Predict the structure of Alginate O-acetyltransferase complex protein AlgI.
Amino acid sequence: MVFSSIIFLFVYLPIVLVVMKTSPLKLRNLFLFLLSLVFYGWGEPFYIVLLLISTVVDYINGYFVYKYRDQKKIAKRFVLFSIVFNLGLLGFFKYYDFIISSLNGIGFELLQPLGLALPIGISFYTFQTMSYPIDIYRGQAEAQKSMVSFGAYVAMFPQLIAGPIVRYRDIAEQLVKRDETMDKFTQGIQRFMIGLSKKVLLANNIGLVFETIKSASSSQMSILTMWLGIIAYGFQIYFDFSGYSDMAIGLGKMFGFELLENFNYPYISKSITEFWRRWHISLGSWFRDYVYIPLGGNRCSQLVNMRNILVVWLLTGLWHGASWNFILWGLYFGILLMIEKLFLLRRLQKAPAIVQHTYTIILVLISWVIFAFEDLGVLKESFRILFGFANVPFINDYFIYLIRNNFVLLIVLIISATPLFKMIYQKYIEGKKLEWITPILILGGLILCTAFIVDASYNPFLYFRF
């Protein structure tokens, strides 16, 4: 089940809201847990078992870590067990086939791939449950007494499938007591509709442009056509993922939860370092706190610090997918961040803003080429086209046709990737006390999104596969 579906919008969500708002306060975590399991198991009920096993194992680990918090050696064993268990679970389902296929490809044909389907959201909920005993061990959280409340935290459907990655310590108090006010509920609806509009009206439509270019014949291809395709993909993945995060944050508000922000207009960044402070914030902060800092962070020699950055970005690439292109993608950003840290960032900050923005956008677009094509042969050919090493023209009629048909959409996408619309809303609607316009915008957005969903044959969530 996805948020941008008729069954979710007009069946599942209304039922959940009615149940949650009419049930006694002490039972709301239980109902949230059970209803979230229904949401998760809608497409593949079997994988509910994995989610429950992960929940129970880390609940028990957290209990014993807290019990032996004054005996660090014993507590540490339970933390290590949690790490090994969660990474083992993630590794088996996500990376087993990749590893076996890679070994087979170089002649080590000892085993065969199993062809297992990747459990949806496993990259997100394993990181969440793994952080729970670690935070207790560090003294940053206390053990949750109720397994039901812990289960509600792990399975909470707004953020279960594609984040943001919610750490237990950030939500522990809200599991016990949270403010479910009408004002927060209204904010939640507004935020949800912003995310739904991003996904349905922007991401899906520009995604069709990318798919069209991706499947174009060699006679239709030109250098600018390929660049347009990568720009389209860059917009698609941003509005798809940030739209999902907006919907998750909005749904959280409807139930009284405050989930952390996951995006902050990354395409206005002036460096790669800044880009990764604005993009997928919850993942970046997770790797910072649980990998980068424990390795020594930047409080070490320059050589060790470079190693730490490279390790983090190798793992970040692997986290996104079991394919060589994701490893290359992670290493690409790791190398760029090392170069910026060593010398480039200081020099870049002295350059005009337009130079900083151009530098960042070009490098980010190149990264999306690596990210988009898992087939290394296709990836290589795409780069040949992009940089003029293939036998294709610089511009052709097909590119002009695509630009003419999608010009307005591209302008809307560019503006929407900046804070401009938010600033206009705050100044001319909130600033002039015209909040009565907001319900009209929300209703209009819902009607428009529903029309697009009913008519759409293309409605993927890109980050579901991670």
About this structure: The chain has two domains: 6-177, 184-270+349-465.
